[in-house]
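I have been asked to look over a protein record a colleague put together. The record follows directly below this note.
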Amino acid sequence: MPEHKALTRRQTVALVFASTLIAAAGQILIKIGATELTRSSPLAMLTNIPLLGGYGLYGLFTLLFVYALRDEELGFVYPIISLSYVWVTGLSIWFFHEEANPFKLLGVVTIVAGVAVLGKEARK
């Protein structure tokens, strides 16, 4: 069995950052799939391609996150996941023409600032 090669902190951040983009894309596909559902039966959900694609991306996100957790502190890695809220907000405005009001924008800025503060603290 090959020996485990640890990721650098920069590689871990890049991996988690990429996984947040994947999770956000999964959320968009789940929303698209949900709007296409004509009935709420399990069969309708299992045959809904965007819904399945969204869940598939969520599965990929989970695998990447587990990989990132092997070598890094949970308290450092987990806050980065909140960036998926930022991506979903932006993608929702773009794809679904949702409203970009000042409260949403303040929330996004707060999330980004929080991730930056936690990341800076973790470097010490």
Summary: The chain has a mean pLDDT of 89.
